[in-house]
Design a protein that fits this description.
This protein has about 260 residues and is an alpha/beta fold. It has helices at about 15-25, 45-50, 55-70, 90-100, 130-150, 170-185, 210-215, 235-245, and strands at about 1-5, 30-35, 75-85, 105-110, 110-115, 115, 155, 190, 225. The strands form 2 sheets. It has a 7-stranded parallel sheet with strand order 1-2-3-4-7-8-9. A two-stranded antiparallel ribbon has the order 5-6. It is globular, with a radius of gyration of 17 Å. Bound molecules: zinc ion (ZN) (2 copies).
């Protein structure tokens, strides 16, 4: 069991050792630390990064040293990875950073569409038409992410389904356009369990529902990611991922 999507204190996760012990206890044999990284240069994102202490573009070398030291003390395989916020127009900044930093692999995520966060941290303003437009824009952004081929993995590709105001708005057309993009890209989607134990969220896995079905029909392969932010996240999410892999007879791929 390889978990390619785990956070550490280099973004919004916790210390390495407890994360690794909990992963091992859940039966994981390889952990990929993929801390958040946002490269947008506008004032709002810079303020936000400062506020949340998100500086992974500046600290990844320090984390790399820590991971190398840990590697000598554990039986687990450790990967040095990153989860980059993808935004259209940022391709050359992302490409330059990934080329320079040379991670084992990179995940690309759409966490914002324009200035709206896709998670439910902020209430969604606007009526149904506005929400449908937002979901259209979200999936168009996912398609650009996949077509950019900047990343080995596209993270939680139908994450809008976790937003109570947007859940159920993913259409067959969205699923088909996402699947078309994956069919022609080196980027693979992940099966993400980040919302598994979040009871008030409508979807447990990403993708789930339409997008998952169409990707399965097309034979698109997945990597696995718990998206664990704290040690306690592994205990339920890893067995849940394993159960899903068995039920759908998935053969998870290695992004390296
Ligand atoms: Zn994410
Ligand atoms: Zn994540």
């Amino acid at each position: 069991m390889y978990d390619y999507h785990v956070h550490s204190l280099y973004s919004d996760g916790e210390y390495f050792e407890p994360m690794l012990s909990a992963a091992a206890e859940a039966g994981v044999s390889a952990v990929g630390f993929a801390d958040h990284c946002n490269l947008a240069g506008d004032a709002r994102r810079r303020r936000e990064r400062a506020r949340y202490g998100r500086n992974f573009d500046l600290t990844y070398e320090r984390r790399r040293e820590a991971l190398a030291a840990l590697d000598e003390r554990t039986d687990l395989t450790i990967f040095d990875a990153v989860e980059v916020d993808y935004e259209p127009g940022l391709e050359s900044e992302i490409d330059d950073f990934l080329t320079t930093a040379d991670f084992d692999y990179a995940l690309g995520s759409v966490h914002y569409v324009d200035d709206q966060h896709v998670f439910s941290y902020d209430p969604f303003e606007g009526g149904e038409a506005a929400r449908r437009d937002f979901v259209d824009d979200y999936y168009e952004t996912i398609v650009s992410l996949v077509e950019s081929e900047l990343f080995e993995i596209a993270a939680h590709v139908d994450i809008v389904e976790s937003h109570p105001a947007l859940s159920g708005m993913t259409t067959c057309e969205h699923a088909e356009m996402v699947a078309d993009a994956f069919e022609h890209s080196r980027t693979v989607p992940e099966l993400n369990a980040g919302r598994f134990d979040d009871d008030d969220k409508p979807a447990s896995f990403h993708p789930e529902g339409r997008v998952f079905e169409v990707l399965l029909e097309r034979g698109v392969e997945f990597t696995l990611g718990s998206d664990a932010h704290e040690p306690g996240d592994f205990a339920e999410r890893i067995p849940a991922l394993r159960e899903r892999v068995e039920r759908f007879e998935l053969e998870p791929v290695c992004p390296l």
